[in-house]
Amino acid sequence: MNQGLGWLPVIVVLVLGIAMAWSGTNGNNMWLLGFGVFEIIIGLLGVYAISKRSRQKVEIKRCPECDEPVASGDELCPKCGFKLS
Ligand SMILES: [Zn+2]
After folding, report:
1. Which residue in 1, 5, 51, 84 is deepest, having the highest Cβ count within 10 Å?
2. What is d(CA 46, CA 9) in angstroms, rounded to the nearest whole number?
3. Is the pTM of this model over 0.70?
4. What tens digit of pLDDT does each residue of 29-52 get?
């Protein structure tokens, strides 16, 4: 549902990092280049974290009645008592 929300800051950091590294390369500015590369690494870590999180999210079962996360072995929702089958 809010899975797409986490992507925005990661994309912003990646685009900013690429732009900073690019202009650092053109302007021969090592500080700008270094900071750009740093931002790209942070962005890639964010991509890794999000893809890992979204994989885990698939395995989490939710109650169709109240959207409460339930264990896969549960037969009844712990929150609303909806019968899970
Ligand atoms: Zn429920």
Report:
1. 84
2. 9
3. no
4. 999 999 999 999 999 999 998 888
Q: Domain boundaries in the chain? A: 7-60
Taking the centre of ligand 1 as the mean of its atom positions, its distance from the CA of residue 8, in whole angstroms, is: 31
Residue 55 has pLDDT above 80, yes or no: no
Q: How far apart are CA 59 and CA 71, in angstroms?
A: 10
Q: Distance between terminal CA atoms of the chain?
A: 23
Question: Residue type for 17, please?
Answer: G
Q: How many C-beta atoms lie closer than 10 Å to residue 21's C-beta?
A: 20
Query: How far from the centroid of its chain's Cα atoms is residue 59's Cα?
Result: 16
- Ligand 1 centre to CA of 61 (Å) is 11
